[in-house]
Amino acid sequence: MKHIRNFSIIAHIDHGKSTLSDRLIQATDIVSDRDFKDQILDSMDIERERGITIKSQTVCLPYRAKTGQHYSLNLIDTPGHVDFSYEVSRALASCEGALLLIDASQGVEAQTLANMYLAMEHDLEIIPIINKIDLPSADVERVKAQIEEDLGLDPDTAILASAKEGIGIEEVLEGAVNLLPPPEGDPDAPLKALIFDSHYDPFRGTIVHFRVIDGKIRAGDTIRFMFNNATYRVEEVGIFRIVRVPRKELTAGEVGYMIAGIKTVSDTRCGDTVTLHSHPCDAPMSGFKETKPVVFSSIYPVASDAYEELAVAMEKLKLNDAALIYEKDSSVALGFGFRCGFLGLLHLEVVQERLEREYDLSLILTAPSVQYEITLNDGTTEIIDNPALYPDPTLIQNTREPYIRAAIIVPDRYMGAVMKLCLERRGINKNYQYLTNNRLEMIFEIPLAEVVYDFYDRLKSVTQGYGSFDYDIIDYRDTDLVKLDILINGDRVDALSQLVHRERSVMRGRRACEKLKEEIPRQMFKIAIQGAIGGKIISRATVSPFRKDVTAKCYGGDISRKRKLLEKQKKGKKRMKMVGQVEIPQSAFLSVLKSEGD
Ligand SMILES: Nc1nc2c(ncn2[C@@H]2O[C@H](COP(=O)(O)OP(=O)(O)OP(=O)(O)O)[C@@H](O)[C@H]2O)c(=O)[nH]1
């Protein structure tokens, strides 16, 4: 155990975590350079394209230190986005140390701080690393000052690195060996192991990633998940060397995987404790919580006959994504689909992209909603996330909505712009403090519903890219909610209904009408678009009919050109949805979601 080091790299998005992981893997020779895929840990397509890490993957690196001693370095990869902060927390609970990566030109940002606090909660030894020192805009001294004053860490321990150029990599490995403590734990105690991740393998079922805290686990053992008391017989245990390498047993301090005939990843819970059925440990690890979705939206196929395909795709996706929940849903306008729950807006976008790309589906998503607690006059309380299920307002006694605590870090010259944005979003400024280099940390309490649309984009734009943001849900508070409906030629389009705060409803209604007007193509008749609350119309826009026959031009002339045009039209149709007499393009549904820009 003395020669094991378990650690994660934590960083703000884009500070170079994946690049550094790749370098560490390369430096320890477990894959030959020729086979080395760039950013081997970010194996999913979308992750690579968007450059963000979503699913953690772990690797065990054999390393021979300068002293000649051999070490096993378990690098536990963590997702970098706020939507996945619980996964980060569980991964950190499996570690003794963390490498805190800071971009030399960007400095300390909101998630740098948030991640460092998480690491401190788990009592981890933290090594600061200043990355991207090769950049012309790198300012090492400034970042060192931030490390000292904003993070309270010793700047002299910071390692200077460029993951891209391969500078400082050996120092990082030596730092892990010399500065991080080895794991503690009792190999002879009853088995206690922490699940920090799982993924699905089509041939072997669920692969559970875990850290052994105490005891031993080997193939043939009957194990028990302490959350739901489910028992399984272990078929295989082993470690990650990019590929899985089976081992006879894993003991206290080690990190690896197990295969135990588990059908889907939702049977295992990130954060749960595994023990032996015959000889259990006394108590599970503390801090377990189930990940709860906070943002909800319905997904419909554009072509109604693609429902079955969507159902199959959802099922497959769910195998690998325990956080995704869904149930069947139906809409008058859009037919059959699924009501889904996500960890946040990024999670939603990732799911949508995967469905569209990997399963070649064309989808319509309804406006994302948070969960409201609604108490009715008869004293019962309902949790509502779907506008379609919103009760008759006369029956409602009281409605509450979730609030977040948002931490925003910006250069102080943007203070006014951030304040304006947050106040517009019904935020309450709770606190602010100066950090080094004229930067401010501003704390707001804001309704989650105001953040799920486009808050992060807006923050980036009003701060010219300098603002960074992190949030936690804190509580539910009283709110004044209304249901905004959209009518097209008098027909209510249920998929466009939204639950909004009364204060914001008129503006939202107006924006939705304007956007729809831009998106809905002219047709042979006039199209009236209206926003309504209850029976009352609050906004309207009109798409006027064609004035002349635009297809007339195409008659006569080249037949192949005409055919091409027809084909193009047919393709275009696929992305249109008929609502009553009116054809609405898929983009119109999306534009309503994004109608928040101020
Ligand atoms: N110049 C320079 N660029 C770097 C360095 N390290 C990483 N980058 C670049 O920074 C960008 C982000 O790097 P990633 O490794 O994907 O960042 P990440 O922290 O893993 O991002 P998430 O996965 O979203 O958390 C990429 O374009 C990298 O090529 C470095 O040392 N120098």
From TrEMBL:
Keywords: Cell membrane, Elongation factor, GTP-binding, Hydrolase, Membrane, Nucleotide-binding, Protein biosynthesis
Domain of life: Bacteria
Main location, first listed in the record: membrane
Compartment(s) where it occurs, according to its Swiss-Prot or TrEMBL record: Cell membrane
Membrane topology: Peripheral membrane protein
Binding residues for GTP: D14, H15, G16, K17, S18, T19, N131, K132, I133, D134
GO cellular component: plasma membrane
Enzymatic class: hydrolase
Pfam families xrefs: EFG_C, GTP_EFTU, GTP_EFTU_D2, LepA_C
A molecular function GO annotation: ribosome binding
GO biological process, one term: positive regulation of translation
Reactions this protein catalyses: GTP + H2O = GDP + phosphate + H(+)
Domain Tr-type G: 2-184
Keyword Membrane part of the UniProt annotation: yes
Position of the signal peptide: none
Enzyme Commission identifier(s): 3.6.5.n1
PANTHER family xrefs: TRANSLATION FACTOR GUF1 HOMOLOG, CHLOROPLASTIC (PTHR43512:SF4), TRANSLATION FACTOR GUF1-RELATED (PTHR43512)
Function of the protein: Required for accurate and efficient protein synthesis under certain stress conditions. May act as a fidelity factor of the translation reaction, by catalyzing a one-codon backward translocation of tRNAs on improperly translocated ribosomes. Back-translocation proceeds from a post-translocation (POST) complex to a pre-translocation (PRE) complex, thus giving elongation factor G a second chance to translocate the tRNAs correctly. Binds to ribosomes in a GTP-dependent manner.
Family note: Belongs to the GTP-binding elongation factor family. LepA subfamily.
NCBIfam families: lepA, small_GTP
Name of this chain's protein: Elongation factor 4
Organism the protein comes from: Desulfonema ishimotonii
Gene: lepA
